[in-house]
Design goal:
2 copies of one chain form a homodimer. Chain A has about 450 residues and is of the alpha/beta class. Helices cover about 25% and strands about 25% of the residues of chain A.
Chain lengths: ~450, ~450
């Protein structure tokens, strides 16, 4: 068969690429090929274990694509022929394309060195519905769960399993949970939240091996301690899924991601790459990065689709700015841009300021929540490099406010002369809005 | 007595001016003089009738000012002597100042032409605790309440009184409630929300008079209809409180606000004016405006305090951008910048785009809420002029995202290549984030 635009991969990036390509390249035929009959909402996966109880309630719907006339094929591309501009599939199909977008995503790390990794009841967390459904079912009869790795997905799964009554222990090699994302104060508060809800946290200690004969029995830590485990969940990060690209001769960078330019174009002018499989460069430094986020993937997808048939210098991807957040119970934790530790490591001379207030006014309103905002600012020019937030459910959008400040190169001075909207039932008070107050504190430090 | 910086008025603007002045003009003595022993949180006033049940839980605390060493005087300034740079007070004090900030606020409109306006049980909504406490007490025995004016305060009070079991009717002369703030779709949905909760809405009809002998009995509308009323609450807007400034010979603009420049300086170089009493100019047009908002007042207060002793051309007030929102039950409604009707009236050629999604992903999560974003964009250059939001409790901060887009002169193109953060429990999905989708829809229209 022939298609004008072919997209490999049907998760968030592939879906958005198809939608945007349809809207920007009118009249062009678009085919999306994916392995999965049904696609999971990637960030929703931790919540199938507790909050929504089944993967069926966490499906990325096809309706929008069907409505736009995108041709969806469930099959697997086994090779790409760059010269002839076609792909071969597992079912024996040959699909000719004019433009190709690779969005093959990532897969969970299951380290070779880890003894016991193939024991029964050791799981990873891929975006694969069949695997997850089977994993979910097996968990029913397993009570003591040890989760290795306390990044976002690890702690979200921990909290969900705890919620349904499992005995959950998280093991993290770093000195703090979420330690790569957050500075100490926020990470510690997130940890306390998790502990208060009943999750056990074991940090600063690596894992030596998983013990058991045919099935998991315990986890042996580097300090000799053993933790009983009916099941071990490995949440050790993800690596780009690039076999196909590699086989096709596309260049990978030193971290193993498909190299792309600012239009998300690979070395091959008609092949683009987006999402977890494609190269990331940090917004603040331009250096290679490993940050994988569905939201960033979607931004890359929009950029690729808009530049597919004609390049536009004002529609480029400016580099990944990590904007992420999570919630543990009623408390949410967010970060945008660089945290202090990373900023310093990257060579920035920074000033930070933080302010803690309440996200309603008066604070006596029943659903009020403490709200803390911390800003990380370059000392010599006042540019906002990053921010962290602790608060209630509006933490997500408040972190996005900081994300837009960073993307617009705002300085603390710009922030303190800015106008924000406030309302008793929805935000902090205008006189004590933590984002503005934090900026004032930084401004004062910069002046003194 | 002598003070270096004197602030008249203790509401949000006065408070923020004092705090910022302390931080920016170190060492200077600051005195804040106000009439009220206890200051109400202005935007919290509607909620004393239901959600917090008493004005005692809606107090702007003095602790922060005391801690900073701000001298608070409860007294009333009766005259300002610009030449001698002093103020006389009701208690007979003479206060000499170096710099003066006027933040005398606004007072509710009680139109002269309205027959029956002085009947018993006719109330307005000032920021005066004593008045409000008495009003609140009197309401206990009054059941049928008619509120005249369906702006934000009118509908918030209506919803709160309905919540505690009163029979509430709102009368609005415009064809829609909140009609000055929102375009039709949002205003209609807000109205439906209010009606669903039990408030009666009577719109497109003015009021002729309030009937009654000694106390309120009914409201007579312009169409001859009578609505029984044990109490009538006038929520017809506010006028700047400028008697003092006028008497001192400070220039007022044609709308009756104290004239100021972009540093919030009056014609007199040592006298600044901020908040509801001071001149407003629209962000998009630079024309005089009447928009009064506590949040804007606080931004003006910061600017005035920063420029009090030395001007800074990068710390000016760029014009009022109306960013406001409210909640009716679990649904919130927000607007930033110009709505479509105002934009067209002001002479902009605009394109709008709106998208409705869900503020969680998967949408099956229990506290998910429909989320609609509409963008109002200049056709010739793609600049975002305004936005409207309907959604859950994160509507406030999402509206602030749009507010920052406008203040940063972002175009729809900038938005569609931007990165946002998303999370299942906190925001819409990255593939269906209504703000980005609305921008895409506008971008498509602009291209076609």
């Amino acid at each position: 068969m022939k298609t004008e635009i072919l997209i490999i991969g049907g998760s968030a990036a592939g879906l958005v690429a198809a939608t945007t390509a349809k809207s920007c390249n009118q009249g062009k035929g678009i085919t999306l090929i994916r392995k999965e009959e049904t696609v999971m909402i990637p960030c929703g996966i931790p919540y199938i274990f507790g909050s929504v109880m089944t993967s069926e309630k966490n499906i990325l719907p096809d309706a929008g694509l069907h409505k736009l006339g995108v041709n969806i094929i469930v099959d697997e591309v086994t090779s790409i022929n760059k010269e002839e501009k076609n792909c071969k599939t597992k079912k024996g199909e040959i699909i000719e394309y004019e433009k190709l977008i690779i969005a093959t995503g990532s897969k969970p790390v299951k380290p070779e060195w880890l003894k016991g990794r193939d024991l029964k009841n050791v799981f990873v967390i891929p975006k694969d519905k069949e695997y997850l459904d089977s994993f979910h079912k097996q968990l029913e009869n397993l009570h003591k769960i040890v989760i290795i790795g306390a990044g976002f997905i690890g702690i979200e799964v921990a909290d969900e399993l705890n919620k349904i009554g499992k005995d959950v222990t998280v093991v993290e090699i770093l000195p703090r949970i979420l330690g790569a994302a957050f500075d100490e104060v926020v990470a510690n508060e997130a940890e306390q939240c998790l502990i208060d809800r009943g999750v056990k946290v074991n940090k600063g200690i690596g894992i030596k091996e998983i013990l058991g004969t045919d099935k998991t029995e315990a986890v042996l830590l580097n300090n000799g301690e053993k933790i009983e485990a009916d099941s071990v969940i490995l949440s050790l990060g993800y690596v780009p899924n690039v076999e196909l690209a590699k086989k096709a001769g596309l260049k990978l960078n030193e971290f193993g991601f498909i190299e792309v330019d600012q239009y998300r174009r690979t070395g091959e002018p008609d092949i683009f790459a987006i999402g977890d499989c494609s190269e990331k460069r940090d917004f603040a430094t331009g250096r290679l990065s490993k940050t994988m986020l569905a939201s960033t993937a979607c931004a890359e997808a929009r950029v690729a689709a808009m530049n597919l048939c004609k390049l536009s210098t004002v529609q480029t991807f400016r580099g990944t700015i990590g904007i992420y957040f999570t919630a543990i119970g009623d408390t949410a934790f967010g970060v945008a841009g660089l945290n202090k530790a990373v900023a310093i490591k990257e060579g920035f001379d920074v000033v930070t300021g933080s302010f803690t207030g309440i996200d309603r006014h008066p604070g006596k309103l029943e659903d009020s929540h403490k709200q803390m905002v911390k800003l990380i600012v370059a000392r010599h020019n006042g540019l906002i490099l990053g921010g962290e937030v602790i608060g209630g459910k509006s933490t997500g959008e408040l972190t996005n406010v900081i994300g837009f400040m960073i993307q617009n190169n705002m300085t603390v001075n710009d922030v303190i002369v800015s106008q924000i909207g406030t309302h008793p039932l929805l935000t902090a008070s205008p006189a004590g809005y933590p984002l503005i107050k934090a900026a004032e504190i930084v401004a004062k430090t910069l002046k003194s």
